[in-house]
From TrEMBL:
It comes from the Bacteria. Residues 429-562 form the GGDEF domain. The chain crosses the membrane at residues 12-33, 138-161. This is EAL domain-containing protein. It comes from Niallia oryzisoli. Residues 163-216 form the HAMP domain. It is found in: Cell membrane.
């Protein structure tokens, strides 16, 4: 029940309990005292009677005369409260007794009988308690009545007090309930009552007033916030519309601009609005809504300083009043259009101003700080939208264009080809595909680095474009490969002329970062409809034709023929066969002697790889080495030859032959390996060859990157090996570079040796190379010497070593061992013959 939890009841119970406890305590104390007093009075009565008897019988008890005891005891026993009297002598014997000792509850008092302080006996008196008990009951009854009366009075008094004390509190509770229901004009103040409660009521009233004030403030803020929220919602709707316009699958900048202008005009309700945007040529373009009367002056005065200043300084331009006569021509033009206020907001994306949002109004002083603050978020959102459009356009371009050259990529090129095929069908014309691959580009790229290679590709792409008509399309499909589409052809001659024109344009070396880099291209050509009816087929067949050129003469073009398919298939078979040859130990090393024509000694051998096919027999190097270089298998072949040559050199010494230096060619792929030096060092340690007997031959083109080449060659020299520059005279390293390289020997290319006896220029070149090398403290080896006259010329010009068929073809190791003595004899004979 809730009634017993009320403040009045609880206060009343507490107060009444306290009073009742006090009344009961006092009453019980009074009852106990009064009862004790009555009992003590009864005992005193018995003691008094005993003392009276004591004084009367003391002498008689001393003398032992008990004759006069009975009247005395009888007189005592006749008292109403005395039940019996017993007198005993000093031995404790009863000498007289009056009354009954068994009459209910008795109080017994014993008192000694003395005569002049001598104990002569004892008197025992039994006191009746009947009267005592009656008086005690009367006292108990009176006490109970008193407790009841005081309790009733206490209940009434405490109730009155509790009601009086809790009345203000109840008023506070009532006021609080009113406050909680929303009533604010409440008053809980009591003029009378407890001071603390009055103070509480005062503070309550203050609190109610404060709440009322805060609620009024809050309501105002809510109203303002609601209004602001409505504006924000409207603004978000505009943002949403602009955002949706840039989320289209095929987003167009014109659609985004149109959506932006329409939605901002709808939001602001202004008469005139436009966008000026900086295009890629850094010129301002104006965009307007055709359905609104956009100010023509925006277009006429596009170059006005307002726009330029807003963009350059990223500052807002506000003009809330125009002057008809003293203002600028721009202001006068706006005023004639009925405009009295102008706002130009810069659009900033990635900290760069990319345009302006321009709003004009017919009202003067229209653009307040609040309106400007409302409009500024639009410029941010417009910047994001434009950034999204730019990102989409960039993504679209990257999806269909080559990132390096900007040319169409393979995907877009195929689309163009397919479109050209459809048009050729309709017009009964031809179309051609040219597939270009740069010659030796990988060596250039690996030697000079990718940055230089990228510059070279950009240059070549421009050269190719310059050779084409506007209707033609060139594409970079990856690496150093380009494709060209020639649409709507009338005959088969035009692609040939274009191919020759491109090769002519690439004849001159390209100078990049101080390097003169010669470049050429191999071109394959296919035709629609002769070779195929779809883009993939035509591109693939042009690639096949190009590959055939690549494998033979390079720097040429070829028209696809069906025989190319067989050739291309053979190349794939060849590649697989080379892999098997490496794994099945079908490769062997032959050795071609080098003869010192000044002293007649065998000065060394060059290790040359040969392929002994289990079915086809000996396969010449020119058949499989180009394919091995193209596929990267040359690295495995080169390491095999190096290991075998070092083993053989050590074996010959153990057989008793004099130390014979062995030369091993390093392919460009090997030379550019990061692990080249460590691999060679491992082979030297594994085979136990003296490093001074190992010669490593590099081509002149491998040293184009002089700084890198010096580092690699010096590390090889530190191992103790000798460095030889092979095919000298055919590359494009300057003599200055040659002077800086840590080399030991140059080998004159056989193309100079072949014609030196019939071409004075070649003879002069050979003589010059020999003289120059000797001046640089280098030895010279002439390769490809096949005639007696060639050897005679070389000896005359003091060439150190000769290598060629005149002395010996490449030989297996065992055959070289057998013919070694004969080689020495022939060399000595030659020396004597031309001495």
């Amino acid at each position: 029940m809730k009634w017993n939890k009320g403040l009045v009841v609880q206060f009343w119970l507490a107060m009444n309990s306290l009073v009742l406890t006090g009344v009961l305590t006092i009453s019980m104390l009074y009852l106990w005292l009064e009862t004790t007093h009555l009992e003590e009075a009864l005992k005193n009565e018995g003691i008094t009677a005993a003392k009276t008897l004591n004084s009367a019988i003391g002498l008689s008890m001393l003398e032992g005369d008990y004759s006069n005891l009975s009247p005395l005891t009888y007189s005592l026993q006749s008292e109403p409260n005395i039940a019996y009297v017993i007198i005993r002598d000093k031995e404790g014997n009863t000498v007289n007794q009056k009354g009954e000792t068994t009459l209910g509850n008795l109080i017994i008092e014993k008192l000694p009988i003395e005569y002049y302080k001598e104990n002569v006996g004892e008197v025992e008196i039994g006191l009746k308690t009947t009267a005592l008990e009656k008086q005690q009951k009367i006292v108990l009854f009176e006490t109970i009545i008193t407790v009841i009366i005081y309790s009733i009075l206490s209940l009434i008094f405490s109730y009155v007090i509790s009601r009086r004390l809790t009345a203000p509190i109840k008023k506070l509770i009532s006021a609080t309930k009113q406050l909680s229901k929303g009533y604010r004009n409440v008053d809980a103040l009591e003029k009378k009552g407890v001071i603390e409660i009055q103070q509480l009521a005062i503070e309550f009233n203050k609190m109610a007033k404060t709440i009322q004030n805060h609620e009024e403030i809050l309501v105002n803020k809510i109203n303002n916030a609601t209004k602001d929220l409505s504006n924000k919602v409207a603004m978000l709707e505009v943002f949403d519309s602009i955002s949706n316009s840039v989320l289209e699958d095929d987003v167009q900048s014109s659609e985004v601009i149109k959506s932006t202008l329409v939605n901002i005009q709808k939001y602001m309700g202004v008469e005139h609005i436009s966008l000026t945007v900086m295009n890629q040529q850094k010129k301002l373009e104006v965009h307007k809504l055709e359905q609104y009367n956009i100010i023509s002056s925006f277009i006429l005065q596009l170059e006005d300083t307002c726009f330029i200043y807003a963009i350059d300084h990223k500052q807002i331009i506000v003009r809330n009043h125009f002057q008809l006569y003293n203002g600028s021509y721009f202001e006068q033009a706006l005023l004639k259009e009925g405009m009295n206020s102008l706002l130009i907001l810069p659009i900033i994306a990635k900290n760069t101003a990319i345009g302006t949002l321009n709003i004009a109004s017919t009202e003067e002083n229209y653009f307040s700080e609040d309106i400007i603050e409302q409009l500024q978020p639009f410029t941010n959102h417009i910047a994001l939208a434009f950034d999204r459009v730019a990102a989409y356009e960039s993504l679209h371009k990257s999806a269909y264009h080559d990132y390096l050259t900007g040319l169409p990529n393979f995907r877009l090129f195929k689309m163009y080809v397919q479109d050209a095929i459809e048009k050729a069908k309709q017009n009964n014309t031809l179309a051609a595909i040219l597939f270009l691959d740069l010659d030796r580009f990988k060596a250039v790229n690996d030697t000079f680095g990718h940055a230089t290679g990228d510059l070279l590709l950009r240059h070549i792409s421009k050269q190719i474009v310059s050779c084409l008509d506007e209707s033609d399309t060139v594409s970079r499909i990856g690496g150093d490969e380009f494709t060209i589409l020639l649409p709507l052809l009338l005959d088969h001659t035009e692609p040939i002329l274009v191919a020759e024109k491109i090769m002519k344009a690439l004849e001159n070396p390209v100078i990049i970062k101080g390097y003169k880099i010669p470049i050429s291209t191999s071109i394959g050509i296919s035709f629609y409809p002769k070779d195929g009816n779809d883009a993939d087929t035509l591109i693939k067949l042009a690639d096949h034709a190009m590959y055939k050129v690549k494998q033979h003469e390079k720097n040429n073009y070829a028209i696809y023929s069906r025989q190319d398919d067989k050739y291309f298939g053979n190349q794939i078979v060849l590649e697989n066969s080379i892999r098997k040859a490496i794994n099945n130990d079908e490769l062997v090393v032959y050795y071609q002697p080098k003869i010192n024509i000044q002293n007649g000694r065998v000065s060394g051998v060059e290790a040359l790889v040969r392929w002994i096919h289990p079915e086809k027999g000996l396969i010449p190097p020119q058949t499989f080495i180009p394919q091995a270089e193209e596929t990267g298998l040359i690295i495995s072949i080169g390491e095999f030859v190096l290991l075998q040559a070092c083993h053989q050199c050590v074996t010959w010494q153990k057989m008793g032959l004099p130390p014979i230096p062995v030369s091993v060619n390093l392919s460009p792929h090997q030379f550019l390996q990061a692990s080249l030096v460590s691999n060679i060092e491992k082979i030297i340690k594994k085979t136990g060859i003296n490093p001074e007997l190992l010669e490593l031959e590099i081509t002149e083109s491998m040293s184009m990157d002089i700084n890198r080449s010096i580092v690699i060659l010096q590390e090889l020299k530190d191992l103790g090996v000798h460095i030889v520059v092979d095919d000298f005279g055919t590359g494009y390293s300057s003599l200055n570079y040659l002077r800086k390289l840590p080399i030991d020997t140059v080998k004159i290319d056989k193309t100079f040796i072949n014609d030196m006896t019939i071409d004075q220029n070649n003879e002069a070149i050979v003589a010059t190379i020999i003289t120059m090398a000797h001046n640089l403290k280098l030895t010279v080896t002439a390769e490809g010497a096949e005639t007696e006259e060639q050897v005679k010329y070389l000896k005359r010009y003091l060439c150190d070593n000769v290598q060629g068929y005149y002395f010996s073809k490449p030989l297996p190791a065992t055959e070289f061992e057998t013919l070694y003595s004969q080689l020495v004899m022939e060399a000595q004979k030659t020396i004597l013959l031309y001495a």
